[in-house]
Design a protein that fits this description.
The complex is a heterodimer of chains A (647) and B (197). Chain A is an all-alpha fold and 647 residues long. Chain A has 24 helices and two strands. Classes of the chains: A mainly alpha (647), B alpha+beta (197).
């Protein structure tokens, strides 16, 4: 057997000189013996190879266009077997690469390993570093999610400020005036084609020159000389495995995140560049107005230039010390700026709000941090929701995942509500406040609380003598429905029904009747969430209907029932608001369209704007789709994955 | 020694100087044309965005009645047809504007929400007395001027857009007024407004 292998190797060796190749590759002399401090270069090659391998497999599933980029990344991450692992490794290995580059650079400068004859190789190393940063920048955009989109947007805006050619440069990079399909095709071609090809070319040069000059031994007498194989290779492999372990740990515990799909019309206010570019981001805050080009180009340009000439500065001992000092200042400064950026954005999470004596600047800084945390939280919920929608049986429509976002009451409802309703109405679940919706809480409402509108609980509250006069129903600021107001009939009716003259027995009878009324009225809303209990309580609902239509008159001392004032069932054309279909989708749509209509509040309408009273849609404040989204959201009508599982 | 004459014969004779000069030139030129032509085709295609002009659309933003004359900014999305390479997206949100109308003024002022510093979306919370950019902390007064003048991160005040109030006749013969805005995309980072066309 071994003779067959040997003759095969001989055959290959005759024709391709493989023995020499292998010998050259493995039997490099390591002066002073193998050491852990020599692992960084090999580790970088390993990270790059990892990126090539994972990148090619990602490429096989990725589709660069505005309707497919996010969608294909979603599919990799959440649907393909092992996709989360593949993408996680690619995502975190990229960051590891930047860390390793920094370590490699620090070591070379510290050891003075850039001195003759290694100057050229140092320069090539810096070029490699810039290529890697280019790969990071272009890769950040490719998932086409909110974070990458808005952070990269700032990056290309800054590029557009390059003196003279800036505007054209941006146009070429972005593939037009605005972000679109060609931004993705170009960034992808750079990320997967041009930059890796350049990197391979320079890496070959880098390694060739490295082998030509030999390893720069910090301490040649550290130990007996050894060969690269197997001593140093073992150390390199252990280091590579350690790096992979760290990357896997991040992948398993954190995972590569995917925010909601990029939306040019909805800015992501917490957009920040990847952490290793944060210092540049923070640096820009120091340069007001037109001085910005100093922060964005001139100073970074000078720093990079200085880095390139370090081998020549470092020819003398004093020059070398200067280089080391520069490097320490550079990394110290970057670390300081990064910390500052992180602190500025997040400090509101752990520090108290500024007190009375705080300056305007302090208050603003605190507010900005609070807004950042809020925006991040919102984006997190939005991302979870879009992924939930994408995983629904309906999947993603051909128009892309943004359609899912725009058509979802759960996502759009709160936004539309905030713009159009929250100024007056409160929206809060007192028992179980939703952290996602804290911004919809109105501490001083001038209209009822709309949380759970139309549910049994909500209507029971409306028919409760104490709750009806609370701010959650008709007891809000400036209400005409309570106290000395103009239209107190409803409140009076409820309160008189529970007058203090009633004995315990009578009170219980009234309560039982009102409960049935609430159940019957709530059934009019046809809420999805009450579908089952409404079907179960068909008898109670029938009793409740009878009470509303007139039966209540026999129970109450006042001898009146709902239908004495409201149109309902057989009691037609009595008055308003009409209780047929009360809080149903149809009813609410018409109500939001014009609450002052005769079938609703008519003359009694209290400041509620008519959002769509006109037949001509151009005249209406809200279009039909927006109204539907608000109504569906208020009624809790949105896709829920659990229901599908049940069905 | 038997092989010597033949190895002598194999040695190429030095060509005449003039002939070799033309050969070299011809080799370089033909080779260059062969290599550069496809490259030029690629570069031309790559640079095609530079040869395409884009115009700023004039967009209907809102009814004038939706902008009360109380001097407070109101946020409106800019919805218009958007072309992206081979796609036309009908009626897409392409950006946002703030409309502000002072007391008794017939026409509102329109500010684009794009920050003149680095293009982030400037935010405004109803009731606040300033606009704030979430990226690099630029702040603007309600008239669009920078809170800290030239010490602000933003190099210029918020960009105003040309506004037009148009009368429309409705189906029922009644008249209404609409606010139309020329939605210009200005370059960021400069003291003066420069259109990105």
């Amino acid at each position: 057997m071994s003779s067959i292998v040997r003759s095969l190797v001989d055959w290959l060796d005759d024709r391709a000189g493989v023995r020499d190749l292998v010998n050259d590759a493995l039997y490099e002399r390591v002066v002073g013996g193998s050491r852990w401090r020599y692992v960084w270069g090999s580790a970088l090659v390993m990270t790059f190879m990892t990126q090539v391998v994972t990148g090619i497999f990602l490429w096989m599933a990725y589709s660069p266009s505005t309707q497919t980029a996010w969608e294909s990344v979603y599919f990799i991450e959440h649907e393909m077997t092992g996709g989360w692992l593949l993408r996680g490794i690619h995502h975190y290995m990229a960051q590891m690469m930047v860390i390793l580059l920094a370590i490699h650079f620090v070591q070379i400068v510290w050891d003075g390993a850039y001195r003759a004859p290694r100057e050229l190789n140092f320069v090539i190393g810096l070029i490699l570093m810039l290529i890697v940063l280019g790969l990071s920048f272009t890769g950040y955009l490719l998932p086409w999610d909110q974070k990458g989109y808005w952070a990269t947007n700032v990056g290309t805006e800054l590029a557009s400020q390059t003196p003279v050619v800036g505007a054209d440069l941006k146009k070429v990079a972005v593939g037009g005036s605005d972000y679109g399909h060609h931004t993705l095709t170009r960034f992808f071609a750079l990320h997967a084609g041009v930059l890796p090809a350049l990197l391979v070319g320079f890496l070959v040069l880098h390694i060739t020159l490295f082998r030509r000059h030999g390893l720069h031994a910090k301490d040649p007498n550290h130990g007996p000389d050894a060969m690269f194989w197997p001593d140093q290779v073992l150390k390199d492999s252990v280091a590579s495995l350690g790096i992979l372990a760290a990357v896997l740990a991040f992948t398993v515990w954190e995972g590569a995140d995917l925010m909601a799909p990029a939306d040019a019309a909805n800015p992501y206010n917490a957009a920040r560049p990847e952490w290793y570019f944060l210092f540049l981001f923070q640096f820009l805050k120091w340069f007001p107005g037109e001085l910005e080009i100093w922060g964005a180009f001139i100073i970074p340009g000078i720093i990079v230039t200085v880095m390139f000439v370090m081998p020549w500065i470092g020819r003398s001992r004093a020059g070398h010390l200067l280089n080391v000092t520069l490097m320490v200042v550079l990394f110290g400064g970057a670390a300081y700026l990064t910390t500052q950026a992180l602190y500025d954005d997040n400090f509101a999470a752990w520090s108290e709000p500024p007190g009375e004596s705080a300056s305007e600047g302090e208050i603003k800084a605190y507010e900005a941090s609070k807004d950042f945390i809020e925006a991040k939280k919102d984006a997190h919920y939005e991302a979870l929701r879009v992924i939930e929608l994408a995983q629904s049986p309906a999947k993603i429509p051909p128009t892309g995942a943004l359609t899912l976002v725009y058509d979802d009451p759960y996502l759009q409802g709160p936004k539309l509500y905030k713009q159009n309703c929250a100024g007056c109405h409160n929206y809060v679940d007192e028992e179980n406040p939703d952290p996602r919706l804290t911004s919809l809480v109105n501490e001083e409402p001038s209209a009822p609380n709309l949380f759970g509108v139309g549910t049994r609980k909500w209507i029971e509250g409306l028919l409760d003598p104490e709750q009806i006069v609370s701010a959650h129903y008709f007891g809000y600021q400036g209400s005409p429905f309570v106290g000395d107001g103009d239209n107190t009939d409803m409140v009076d009716f409820v309160q008189e029904s529970f007058s203090e003259d009633l004995d315990e027995e009578q009170r219980k009878t009234v309560q039982a009747a009102f409960k049935k009324v609430a159940i019957a009225l709530s059934a009019e809303a046809k809420l999805t969430s009450q579908k089952e209990i409404d079907a179960q309580d068909a008898d109670t609902i029938a009793e409740g209907r009878a009470l509303i239509e007139g039966g209540l008159a026999d129970v109450l001392e006042s001898g009146t029932s709902c239908a004495d004032c409201h149109t309902f069932g057989s009691a037609e054309d009595i008055g308003s608001p009409v209780l047929d279909g009360y809080m149903s989708r149809q009813w609410l749509l018409a109500f939001l369209g014009n609450s002052a209509d005769e079938q609703f509040y008519g003359d009694m309408n209290d400041r509620m704007p008519a959002f769509a009273p006109h037949d001509d849609p151009r005249l209406n404040q809200l279009d039909q789709k927006s109204l539907e989204l608000i109504v569906d959201w208020l009624r809790g009508d949105w896709y829920r994955p659990a229901e599908v599982v049940d069905e | 020694m038997a092989n010597a004459p033949s190895s002598q014969a194999a040695k190429p004779t030095p060509p005449e100087d003039r002939r070799s000069f033309f050969t070299a030139i011809a080799a370089i030129v033909t080779g260059a044309i062969a290599v550069v032509t496809p490259l030029l085709a690629g570069v031309a295609t790559f640079l095609s965005p530079l040869f395409r002009k884009n115009h700023s659309p004039t967009v209907r933003i809102a009814l004038l009645s939706q902008v009360p004359d109380d001097g407070m900014p109101r946020y409106f999305p800019v919805v218009t047809d958007r072309d992206d390479a081979w796609n036309r997206y009908p009626q897409q949100r392409v950006g946002a504007v703030y409309l502000v109308r002072q007391a008794n003024e017939p026409t509102p002022i329109a500010f684009t929400a794009k920050c003149p510093h680095a293009g982030c979306f400037i935010g405004y919370t109803a009731g606040d007395d300033e606009f704030q950019c979430p990226c690099h902390t630029s702040a603007f007064k309600l008239d669009g001027s920078r809170e800290n003048g030239d010490n602000e991160v933003s190099p210029r005040d918020m960009d105003k857009l040309p506004v037009e109030v148009r009368e429309i006749k409705l189906a029922d013969g009644e008249m209404a007024q609409e606010v139309w805005v020329e939605f210009i995309n200005f370059q960021t980072g400069h003291k003066e407004q420069i259109r990105t066309t």
